Amino acid sequence: MEVDLLTLAIFSVISLVTAYGSISSLLAARVIEDTPTSKIRSAHQGYVELIGFAKTGLEQTLFSGLTNTPCIWFRYNIERYESSGKNSSWRSIEKKTSTQAFILNDGSGDCYVMPNRAEVSAIRKKTWHGNSRHPSETKGSSLFGKRYRYTEEMLCADDLLYVIGLFETSHPPSPAAVVEAEMAKILADWKQDYDKLVARFDRNSDGNIDLQEWELVRAEAMRKAERNQRNGVALEPVHTISYSPNRRQPYIIASSEPESLSRRYRWQAFGLLLASIGSAAALVWIILQPQNTY
To answer: Is the Cβ–Cβ distance between 90 and 81 less than 8 Å?
Structure first.
C-alpha cells in the first residue's frame, strides 16, 4: 500500500491543532481557577477577574442581528445545507459579532467591557431553521425541507457576567487642568463677539482691549471657569477591561459562574486531547502499513 501524503498531512494537522487546543483550554481553566476575583474600585492595574451584572453603555441601544432583540452583545451564524454527490454538510454563509462596549457593575463601581477579540460564552443561545437566507418572523424547529440554519447568541442587561482580562483605569484631568480648559473655552466664546467684549472691559474708552484690560478679561474668565467647575459634575476615573497581548492571559467573557466555566474548559481540553491522540495513532498506523513495491 502506498502512503497517501494528503492523508498523512490531514491527520498531522488535526493532531497538532487539537493538541494546541487542548493545551489552550487547560491553560484557560487553570487561569480561571488561580486568579482571585477583584472589586472594580480596588482592582490593580493589569490582568484581573471581575464578576458582576451587565449594564448598557453610553452608546445607542443594541439589537441582535437575527431576532432584533435588545441586548448588550450578540453573535450570529447563518448556515446553508449543501449537497455535492454523496457528501452533504452545513456551510456558514454569513456571521457577525458585535463590538460595542457595555458595562459590568459589581456593586463597587462600573467597568467598560470591550468585547473585541474576547472568547465569549453566552447561555442565551438559540438555533432554528428556515427556507430563506435571513430568518422570517415565523420560526420552526423542524429540519425537513429547510435549507438554512440560524444560530444566535446574546448577552443582555442584568445578566450575570464573568470577565477576565486586562484591567486599566484612566484618571480624569486634575481640577486645575479642568479650570484652565474651561477658561480657554470661555475666552474663545467671548472673542466671537469682540464689540461686546470691548464694551464690557474697555476701561479707557479707546475702543480696544490693551494688555492691562486683557488681564481683567482673563481674571473674569478664570472666576467664571472656577464657578463652572464647582457647579459641574465631578469627574470619576474610567475603568476598562479588554484583550491582553500576553498569550498566557486569555480574555474571556461568560454569563456563568467561574466554577462551571473552568469545568467546561477542562472537559473541552480532555475531548481535544482524545482527538489529538486518535489522530496521532491513525497517523502512525498509516505510516507503519507495509507498502506495495513495483
So the answer is: yes
Distance CA 92, CA 162 (A): 29
Question: Could you read off the pLDDT of 199-237 as tens digits, one per residue?
Answer: 899 888 888 888 888 899 999 999 988 888 888 756 678
Residue 138 has pLDDT above 50, yes or no: no
Q: Is 8 exposed, middle or buried (0-12, 13-18, 19+ CB in 10 A)?
A: middle
pLDDT band at 77 (very low <50, low <70, confident <90, very high): very high
Question: Is the Cβ–Cβ distance between 72 and 200 less than 8 Å?
Answer: no
What angle do the packed helices 194-201 and 211-231 form, to 10 degrees?
Answer: 100
Q: Which residue, among 165, 171, 155, has the nearest Cα to 50 in the 3D structure?
A: 165
**In the chain, alpha helices (H):** 5-34, 175-191, 194-201, 211-231, 258-288
- Rounded to the nearest 5 degrees, what angle is found at the Cα of 42, between the Cα atoms of 161 and 261? 25
- What distance in Å separates the CA atoms of residue 72 and residue 88, rounded to the nearest whole number? 36
Q: What cell was used for 243?
A: 484583550
pTM of the model: 0.69
Taking the C-alpha atoms of residue 150 and residue 153, their distance in angstroms, rounded to an integer, is 10
Under DSSP, the state recorded for 60 is: P
- Whether residue 143 is predicted with pLDDT greater than 70 in this model: the reply is no
Cβ burial of 50 (10 Å; 0-12, 13-18, 19+) is: buried
